[in-house]
Amino acid sequence: MQAAADWTAAVAVIVVPPFLLLWFFVHPFTRRWRKLGPALSYLILAAMLASIMVIIYQFRVPLLRVHFGVSRPLTVLAAALFLVSLALGILRTCRLGPAVMLGVPQLSAQDRPGTLITDGIYSHLRHPRYVEAGLGLLAVALFANYLSVYIIAAAYLPIVYLVVLLEERELRDRFGEQYEQYANRVPRFFPSIARRSRSDS
Fold this sequence. Notes:
CATH class: Mainly Alpha
Radius of gyration: 19 Å
Shape: globular
């Protein structure tokens, strides 16, 4: 269990921060990426990701210095959160294909805005993939029980909120009034029971 916690923490510390930063290189500069096209854009972004990961890897020892030990209750809670994250992931996959997950529509040089997904899990949450990732990251933090992973999990919330604001600005540009109506109807992260009740009555 200790070895699994160590390995999980190392992967989280090396992999998660670059992917969080990636969106700040994508969303504010969408038009420039579109001019390059998906293939070249992903090549550049992959090189950037790899470079950041290599840099973090050099500092992995001090980053993983503080460990609170493996905790069975925290491991059980982590497993429960992971299952919820997995369930959200399955529901999200039913509506959001790999191309959209990888941002191909945003990076493609095309005039068509694509299709706004508003059914399935997206009729309850506007951003289920960020909720899914957040719960998964929290599960990793609880299982690994490293200070650095807790810090990353805490930083996830404000970072993702900023990413969502950038993403929603882009969606408004692409879909206009259709997205405005959708945003007024469906909450960002937490399903509203009251709102659902009013819509069903």
